[in-house]
Design a protein that fits this description.
The protein has 474 residues and is mainly α. The protein is 71% helix and 0% strand. Helix 1 packs parallel to helix 18, helix 4 runs antiparallel to helix 5 and helix 12 crosses helix 14. The N and C termini lie far apart (56 Å).
């Protein structure tokens, strides 16, 4: 059965599930990153001195507008941010569904993609409302990739060429934040690939892609300059250079990298509760990595990129995000750090591209078999059957693992909410609590002695303004 317009209801169902989950698993009280945000930007969200700072681009300017709305109309509610995040996750699902409908992807793949998008392997991102802007960033990435998709296929709309120039400025500076590097690299790869393909076919260099590339690079450079003006925080990180650590403990980097791929099959908390030793992680991670390899081979074997570039962009983005997390997070010297739920949003891009490639390749195999094309040979027939089995196996593994993770997180939801309720009661009584209690219960800078004082300062601001947990006392 092919994907039809009925599939547009799937993102709606996913959003409803996400909204139910954050309500079931969270009580509206600040903690973690929100402590820093309160101390940095509240109570005067209109203060220009807090906006016009050197590293403004690293703080994602759109967040300022969201805080103004939140404070003005919702008394600084975490729920407001959570809802934004779930809604933009729904927009991403709608973009993927729209692509599947246009490409006549089999419905089973569309259903699988929607399930993975709303899987609770990213529960931490869904609950931590401060990350809502990152869900918006990915809708921006998909939007740009889909515009490029139309231009790539020669089906561009009137203003698509303008959008390819303008979108990097909007997305990189307005929403992308730390994700802008991979976004830009993927665009540059695509533009270079397009120019090389055109030249290889006897054509001329398409110089407009140089313009698109420059429009992607300049906003990234602005972000890098802005980032260089920020004051870095080092909390419990390694003090040795990357190459020194790599020479001393090469196995650590291999385990970190492979385990990050295994997190796409099963969430880290679920894995730690079931697995002992590294072998299960290597099996799962190896299977997901092999899925990446098969998807890239199918892109080349069937020249799928000539028909549609969108899945390949997603595969590139997913793989590069795994590399980025390895390079940027190894300093914490924890093999499972790359498995954290907070990175699932970045990693799942590659999984979506993989399954889209499987769907397109499966259709290509079926078309060739029906037409009696070049895949009639016994050897190629056996290879085709093996590829189908592996595609099905990887897909079932991803769905089963994410299904198990989602079920377990749903079961944990009442306990997470109970923990939030305890935190809320502690917040209301913060003046009578020690700094150590505050630091531990609000999960903020637990390795720093000043963490407790910063929690106390944030709660004092909220109490004075009667915002967040204190609004109940109005």
């Amino acid at each position: 059965m092919k994907t039809g317009k009925w599939c547009y209801f799937l993102p709606v169902i996913g959003v409803a599930f996400g909204l139910w989950y954050v309500r079931a698993a969270f009580a509206d009280v600040v903690y973690s990153d929100y402590i820093r945000l309160v101390n940095s930007y509240l109570p005067d969200v209109w203060d220009p001195d807090k906006f016009f700072v050197g590293d403004i681009l690293t703080r994602i300017p759109l967040n300022y507008a969201a805080r103004i709305i939140n404070v003005t109309f919702f008394d600084y509610s975490i729920r407001f941010d959570q809802v934004l995040g779930i809604l933009f996750l729904g927009v991403s699902a709608l973009q993927i569904t729209s692509y599947c409908v246009r490409q006549r992807i089999p419905a089973v793949w569309t259903l699988s993609l929607t399930f993975l998008i709303f899987s609770l392997n990213k529960w931490e991102m869904m609950i931590n409302g401060s990350g809502w802007i990152h869900f918006l960033a990915f809708t921006g990435f998909y939007c740009h990739y889909l515009v490029l998709e139309r231009v790539w296929r020669g089906r561009e709309k009137k203003r698509d060429h303008m959008w390819l120039v303008v979108l990097p400025w909007i997305v990189t500076i307005g929403t992308a934040g730390p994700y802008c590097a991979i976004y830009t690299v993927v665009l540059l790869l695509a533009y270079g690939f397009r120019m090389a393909l055109k030249k290889a076919k006897g054509g001329q260099w398409e110089k407009r892609y140089l313009v698109y590339g420059m429009s992607a690079i300049v906003p990234l450079l602005l972000y890098i300059v802005s980032s260089s003006l920020a004051e870095p925080e080092k909390l419990g990180v390694a003090e040795v250079p990357l190459m020194t650590q790599l020479v001393d403990t090469p196995g650590f980097f291999v385990r970190f990298f492979v385990k990050s791929f295994s997190s796409m099959a099963v969430g880290v908390e679920c894995a730690q509760a079931v697995f002992s030793g590294n072998l299960p992680y290597f099996i799962l991670g190896g299977a997901v990595m092999a899925g990446y390899g098969l998807a890239l081979w199918q892109q080349w074997r069937y020249k799928l990129y000539e028909e549609t570039i969108f899945p390949l962009l997603l595969v590139w983005a997913g793989g590069l995000n795994h590399l980025l997390i390895l390079v940027s997070r190894w300093v914490f010297l924890r093999e499972d750090y790359g498995m954290s739920s907070r990175y699932a949003l970045q990693f799942q891009v590659g999984i979506l591209g993989m399954l889209l490639t499987f769907g397109l390749a499966g259709r290509k195999m079926a078309d060739n078999k029906t037409a009696g094309g070049s895949l009639r040979g016994l050897g190629e027939g056996a290879g085709r059957a093996a590829a189908r089995c592996f595609m099905a196996g990887v897909t079932v593994l991803l769905l089963a693992g994410n299904g198990y993770t989602t079920v377990q997180e749903v079961k944990k939801a009442p306990y997470r909410k109970e923990r939030c309720m305890e935190r809320a009661q502690l917040a209301l009584d913060f003046e009578n609590r020690t700094d150590e209690e505050l630091k531990a219960n609000f999960e903020y800078h637990m390795s720093r002695p000043e963490g407790g004082r910063e929690v106390r300062a944030a709660l004092e601001i909220l109490k004075k303004q009667q915002w967040n947990i204190f609004r109940q006392q109005k």
